Each structure stands twice: as structure tokens, then as C-alpha cells.
Amino acid sequence: MSETSTKPYLLRALYEWCTDNSYTPYIVVVVDARTRVPAEFVKNGEIVLNVSFEATGNLKIDNDFIHFKARFGGVAREIEVPVSNVSAIYARENGQGMAFEVQRDDEGQRKKKSRSEPAKTPARKISPLLSSVPPVSADSGKTADDDKQPDPPGKGGRPRLTRIK
Predict the structure, then answer these.
(1) pTM score > 0.70 for this model?
(2) At residue 62, does pLDDT exceed 90?
(3) CATH of range 7-126; options 2.30.30.220, 3.30.420.10, 2.60.40.180, 1.10.357.10
(4) FRET pair for 13, CA 20 to 30 Å: which of 26, 52, 77, 95?
(5) E strands, 17-82, where?
(6) Do 35 and 77 form a contact (C-beta atoms < 8 A)?
(7) DSSP state of 111
(8) Quick check: 162 pLDDT over 80?
(9) Average pLDDT for residues 112-127, to the nearest whole number?
(10) What pLDDT shows up at residue 155?
(11) 3 state SS of 34
(12) Cβ-contact 104, 87 below 8 angstroms
């Protein structure tokens, strides 16, 4: 019997840490054929997802998959992400979190290990595109690097959840 990976347990723990400290948890996902996300938001084979309670519905972090419902551009979508494809989880407010190694073959598909068939091409490691976030100054509310940072997806500012009664 194979040993269960620690990755889903670490993801759940960091998600809980973010929510306990009122931070917004984000995950970085390497997209492949098993990943169900809106293709129009995928950049360089990756997508960054807000998995906070306010942004998701029916969030479930299993040992193999992360499932939830979310709105993208006002359209409700079912999201399904293999835990093995998560390359990082972090708090948006301070950048603290954890990065994981994800291996893909040359065609961009996640590598499947088979004992009966050796790999034809060596896997290459994909490093997450994370950087440290500079602290926010108390007087201006902006960082010194704000002018250098590209606009976040959506370009409408901070995403908001609108509840319709």
C-alpha cells in the first residue's frame, strides 16, 4: 500500500491558517488535461485562484482533488483541480505560504509514473512564480513597488462577491 502524500494536508493547514488570520488564500495551479478551470484565465500554463470562503462555494479539499464553485466574469463555474497540480498556496496580504514542486513532461501534461513503462523524456521541474510582497506603509496604504506591479486580472480592483437575495 502506498503512503498518502503530505501535500493535501499542508494545503488544508495553510488554508485554515489564512482564514484564521483573516487573510485571503490563493493557490497557483499548473493546468493540464485533468484540470477544470476557465481556459481564458490561464496564463503560461498556470492559473491563480482565490479560494477564500467569500470567493468560493462548496469548497472541498480532498487528498486527490480540490473542488469548488466560483464566478469568473459573472459566470458561475465548477472548478476541479488535482492536488498534485498545485504549485503554491499563499496569503494575498503578506505573501506567506508554501510552494510545491510539480513535474510536467515536454508536452505540458502532468507526468504519470508507470512501473511497466519507463519515461521517454525526462521531466522538468516547474517553479512557481512567487515573489515576496513588500510591506504596506501605514501613511499611504501603498508600497514602493506598486507603480512597478502589473494590474491584477480583472483590472477592476479588488474582486467582490455580490450576494443576490
Answers:
(1) no
(2) yes
(3) 2.30.30.220
(4) 77
(5) 25-30, 46-50, 57-61, 65-72, 75-82
(6) no
(7) P
(8) no
(9) 44
(10) 52
(11) coil
(12) no
Query: Which H or E run contains 35?
Result: none
Cβ neighbors of 32 (< 8 A, separation 6 or more) are 82, 85, 104, 108, 109, 110
Grid cell for residue 101:
514542486
How far is C-alpha 113 from the chain's CA centre? 23
**Grid coordinates of 83:** 492536488
- Provide DSSP, 112-159: ---SSS--SS--EEE-----PPPPPPTTTS--TTTTTSPPPTTSSSS-
- Residue 121 is which amino acid? T
Mean pLDDT of the chain: 77
- Name the grid cell of 136: 504596506
